[in-house]
Each structure stands twice: as structure tokens, then as C-alpha cells.
UniProtKB/TrEMBL annotation:
Name of this chain's protein: N-Dimethylarginine dimethylaminohydrolase
Listed SUPFAM superfamilies: Pentein
GO annotation (BP), single: citrulline metabolic process
Annotated keywords: Hydrolase
Domain of life per record: Bacteria
Lineage: Bacteria, Bacillati, Actinomycetota, Actinomycetes, Micromonosporales
Catalytic-site annotation from UniProt: H160, C254
InterPro entries: DDAH-like (IPR033199)
Family listed: Belongs to the DDAH family.
Alphabetized PANTHER family for the sequence: DIMETHYLARGININASE, DIMETHYLARGININE DIMETHYLAMINOHYDROLASE
GO molecular function, one term: dimethylargininase activity
Length: 261
């Protein structure tokens, strides 16, 4: 995770951003810290990446890479405003001794990649349509040695896969069908017939931008409908307030890069 010390909305690269809406940095920091504390209280180890001035979106740490079994497929951001973030993430991973593979294709890390280790022997779900290029899916597959399933996003409000789909545990997903093309919806139905289906209200509340550990589901507190759905499916919802970071187009999952050993 990376604290939002420099967080602001000074440019527009997704439909949620509005430069005329002020950001309360102090509140953003308090909300971020509460999310960090929540993860620690649930038993997780949280590493903190130092923020850098001039990179206001660095708080969305999930976009800096995609990790499977100790190997990191690095990020290459679509927009120049975020390009320098990739180097900061690379320095972190290499300092920690992770195997880092620099990408040649545009991709935004876990923003457009999800991993389910127990689904079909280990499966990468890979989004495209707005940020990550489809060629990056093949590259991630080669680097990480896991099959990648390409899913086309068609609604610009859900510009990253992690705004429309999430792993609840190692084999179960939740997703909003309307964010995907008809063909991708068919693929998801075939692969995950027991998925927890979300509706548009859940997705617009960033309810799918969540972190699940197999039992707990940490999600935006505005997504009360989504909390009820995951509870009905047998998980324990853990709501957190992230109203300030939502102004940048992100929520819980955007703030968390998962380190899979």
C-alpha cells in the first residue's frame, strides 16, 4: 500500500475524476490508514511504499504490478501522468528480492489482472478495453506460467477489471455482467457458474473493488447491497470508508497490491 500524502485530482483519466471537486487530503490519509489497520487486524502483513511528490495516483498501488508465486509482471501505464509510478514499484519489488519482469506491453497491474490459484489449476483473468492491451495478456501468461482468460470491458465507468470483478477466495469470483461484452459474459458464466453476481448499483458504489481473503471481504462502506450479497454467500463483509479516494476512481482493491508468494 502507498499512503495518499500527495493525492489530488489534477487531471482526468477516468469518468470518476473531476478537477473541480476538492480533495480533503487529511481525510484521505485517515481513511487510508483505517484501511491499512483493518487489513492488519485481520492478520495480514502490509508493506508500505513511500509516496512520491508529483504522482497523485500512486495511492492506487494495485496498478504497479501483478504478482504470482513470487514473480512480478511489472506495469506499463497507459497515461503519461502515471508512467513514473512503474519505476517506484519496480524498486520496491527488487529491494524485497522478488523476481521482477519488465513489460513491453501496456498493462496496469492488478487493475486489469486477477488470479485464482485453485480455479482450473491456477487461472489469470485479464481485462482489456480501456487501459491494458490484449497483447499484455499473452505476455503475462508467458511470464507467470498460468493461462490467461481475456475479458473485454465495455462500460467506461468500469475502466479496470478490478472495478467490475473480484476474487472472493482462491476459486470464487463476483462480477457485474453489464461491464463486460456479451462474449465475455458467456465465458464468465461457463468458467464460474457459481459466481456471486453483482448489479449496477453494487458496481457504481465500488462494491466490486474489494479484497477477499477467503473469509473476510473488505469493501467500500457505500456498497451495502454488495455487503449483503457476500454475506449471503458465506463471507464476512468488512466495510471501510474511502469516500475521498473514490474521487480518483478507486476504492479498496485499488489501494492494495497483493503479494503472492
Amino acid at each position: 500500500m502507498c499512503p495518499p500524502e500527495h493525492f489530488t485530482v489534477e487531471y482526468v483519466i477516468n469518468p470518476w475524476m473531476d478537477t473541480s471537486t476538492p480533495v480533503d487530503v487529511e481525510l484521505a490519509l485517515k481513511q487510508w490508514e483505517r484501511l491499512r489497520e483493518t487489513l492488519v487486524d485481520l492478520g495480514h502483513t502490509v508493506h508500505v511504499l513511500p509516496p512520491r511528490a508529483g504522482l497523485p495516483d500512486m495511492v492506487f498501488a494495485a496498478n504497479g504490478g501483478f504478482v504470482v508465486d513470487g514473480t512480478v509482471y511489472g506495469a506499463r501505464f497507459k497515461y503519461p501522468q502515471r508512467a513514473a509510478e512503474a519505476a517506484a514499484h519496480r524498486e520496491f519489488y527488487e529491494a524485497q528480492g522478488w523476481t521482477y519482469v519488465a513489460p513491453s506491453e501496456v498493462n496496469e497491474g492488478e487493475g486489469d489482472f486477477a488470479y485464482l490459484p485453485d480455479a482450473y489449476g491456477g487461472t489469470i483473468l485479464a481485462g482489456y478495453g480501456f487501459r491494458t492491451e490484449p497483447a499484455a495478456h499473452a505476455q503475462a501468461q508467458d511470464v507467470l506460467g498460468r493461462p490467461a482468460v481475456s475479458l473485454r470491458l465495455v462500460d467506461p465507468r468500469f475502466y479496470h477489471l478490478d472495478t467490475a470483478l473480484a476474487a472472493l477466495d482462491d476459486r470464487t469470483v463476483t462480477y457485474f455482467p453489464g461491464a463486460f461484452s456479451p462474449a465475455s459474459q458467456r465465458v464468465l458464466r461457463q468458467l464460474f457458474p457459481d459466481a456471486v453476481l453483482a448489479d449496477e448499483a453494487d458496481a457504481l458504489a465500488f462494491g466490486l473493488n474489494l479484497v477477499g481473503d477467503g473469509r473476510h471481504v473488505v469493501l467500500n462502506d457505500e456498497a451495502s447491497g454488495m455487503a449483503a450479497r457476500v454475506a449471503a454467500a458465506g463471507y464476512v463483509p468488512v466495510p471501510v470508508e474511502l469516500s475521498e479516494l473514490k474521487k480518483g476512481g478507486g476504492s479498496v482493491k485499488c489501494c492494495v497490491a497483493e503479494l503472492r508468494h
